[in-house]
Amino acid sequence: MDLLRFSTAGSVDDGKSTLIGRLLYDSKAIFEDQMEAVEQASAARGDPSVDLALLTDGLRAEREQGITIDVAYRYTATPKRKFIIADTPGHIQYTRNMVTGASTADLAIILVDARKGVLTQSKRHSFIASLLQIPHVVVAVNKMDLVEYSETRYQEIVGDYRAFAAKLNMRNVVYIPISALHGDNIVSQSQNMPWYHGATLLHHLETVNIGAGRNNVDFRLPIQYVIRANSAVDLDFRGFAGQIVSGRIGVGEEVVALPAGIRSRVAGIHRGDESCDRAAAGDGVVITLEDEIDISRGDMLVRVRNLPHSSNQIDATLCWMSEEPMKIEWSVSNNFSGQWYWLQQSTRRVRASVQELNYRINVDTMHREEAPTLRLNEIGRGQIVTTEPLFFDSYQINRATGSFILIDPHTNNTVAAGMIRDRARRVSELVQKQEEREAPSLRASRSSNVVWEPVAVTRPMREELNGHGAAVLWFTGLSGSGKSTVAKALEQRLFALGVRTFSLDGDNVRHGLNSDLGFGPEARTENIRRVAEVARLALEHGNIVLCTFISPYAEDREAARALAPEGSFWELFVKCDVEICKERDPKGLYERAERGEIPNFTGVSAPYEEPVQPEMVLETDRHSADELAQRILEALARAGIVHGGNS
């Protein structure tokens, strides 16, 4: 039986607690002693009838004032589904509590009073539901009994809400007219609204597809605890415990541990006292690996070919939850002088500082406003820098790894909830910056009759979006010298850092793009020319391009260098004694060339012109491919092309 988490939201006195109480009562999910307590409390307050809202209003202040202050959680089930219900407050001063209750919800019920229509707080909570990417929304038009169950009034409210929702990123919105007080369309179809032919609220909650909003692709396991053997049964046992927050994993699959970047395979999966072959999002598991890897709390296990972003600078939407205004640290240094917070993302906690507040969002108009800081219950966009890199996905595609909280280090209070923005959304801003740099008079031309062309997306813009520079790494050397081996080892390290790469080698080019070319001098020159043109295009798209070609002629390599911007072409001479190259030759090419079966073979019957001043010399007969790959990575880091490459 699956589980649906849903929250209620809306303006004050829209009937959220009454709705949940009615839902629990009509679905027979209340114990006798609970009902007796509610009846006594209602009588003590002098209520004319039993107030079902008291089933969720647990605080004394809530019962005295008839409002919801804190988030109340209730657990119930029907034969079709289990439910966790979050009853959230409607008052504006408790917006932070609403954010807390809705942050893990699969569905949000937005209540609207049929008499009052769509109010500011209804819009505020709808905006937060949209911001939190809650997959399903139910707009429950409540208190229909007070407007004589008018279909006209219901349609007016639906029209108003649809006009507002069009400004938000809201999907799967369902509208249901109800009366929580009398139970109309809660569990059973209402006889008072024969014009409504849709599902009841409970039926919708039981049948809504909650799997569609969950990320079952990107395997992410934040490590919460490392379990060592505590008995003589298995002294070598070492398991990594945590909850899989997204995706699936199976025994035998290859994973990588972040931030170490070390690969291994899943040896076993333990769920409780049982072993299993597979596990999925939501499962609490203990995973064992085939190799001994140093992993601790705050690290993350992911699939090798499905890595999250890694950065110490994030672009996020913030919901401020503290009475103390947000503190901004203007220094871009990671050694924060005073205005810093703890950033908690899943099991990982690092020091962080708000570097910049871009704008505050007016939830009434959805307009962006300039503001020096954020105050209690305000929402805005900011740039955050951390002392250690985070491993994250955008909140839009993975709510678990795309969210975080900020904690005051002095009081240990949670001061903000954050949602990491999709990095692709920054493209429009980068385009705007580029326009301002390259065409200062562009705005003037927009207001006149001058025809103008939009500025194209450039390599520097792509580099800023990617978070790393672009370069062409040209590996040259004899056949068998180890060009491809070193390049592949380097690409694995770049991939683990989230760097965009593009690989070109003799095999994948000769069988496709250059299948019409031979191996004579002119054909070799044309082969390198075509490869250099493709490498240039890949470079302009912000990639680090790895080219592994014998490329025996210095003139051809210089022509390739000339196509790239200055400083972005690295000639890497993979140097190896020819006799060792022959020993390594797995295809027997050298032997065939010496017998005359392969004409124009470099190093035997054709010359190789060694680079005179390459950017690096890689001696593969003295160092391993892993050592050389690490050297290249460190050189790229020193040059500022990539980050995090230093060991």
Automatic annotation (TrEMBL):
Keyword annotations: ATP-binding, GTP-binding, Kinase, Multifunctional enzyme, Nucleotide-binding, Nucleotidyltransferase, Phosphoprotein, Transferase
Binding-site residues for GTP, renumbered to this chain: 10-17, 87-91, 142-145
Pathway(s) where this gene product acts: Sulfur metabolism; hydrogen sulfide biosynthesis; sulfite from sulfate: step 1/3; Sulfur metabolism; hydrogen sulfide biosynthesis; sulfite from sulfate: step 2/3
GO annotation (BP), single: hydrogen sulfide biosynthetic process
Active-site residues annotated for this sequence: S551
TM region(s), chain numbering: none
Annotated Tr-type G domain residues: 1-217
CDD domains documented for this protein: APSK (cd02027), CysN_ATPS (cd04166), CysN_NodQ_II (cd03695), CysN_NoDQ_III (cd04095)
A Gene Ontology molecular function term of the record: sulfate adenylyltransferase (ATP) activity
Record EC number: 2.7.7.4, 2.7.1.25
Stretch forming the signal peptide: none
Catalysed reactions listed for this entry: sulfate + ATP + H(+) = adenosine 5'-phosphosulfate + diphosphate; adenosine 5'-phosphosulfate + ATP = 3'-phosphoadenylyl sulfate + ADP + H(+)
Entry-linked Pfam families: APS_kinase, GTP-eEF1A_C, GTP_EFTU
Amino-acid positions noted as binding ATP in the UniProt annotation, renumbered to this chain: G477, L478, S479, G480, S481, G482, K483, S484
Gene3D superfamilies: P-loop containing nucleotide triphosphate hydrolases, Translation factors
Sequence similarity: In the N-terminal section; belongs to the TRAFAC class translation factor GTPase superfamily. Classic translation factor GTPase family. CysN/NodQ subfamily.
Subunit architecture: Heterodimer composed of CysD, the smaller subunit, and CysN.
Function per UniProt: Catalyzes the synthesis of activated sulfate.
Protein name as it appears in the record: Multifunctional fusion protein
Species assigned in the record: Caldilineaceae bacterium SB0664_bin_27
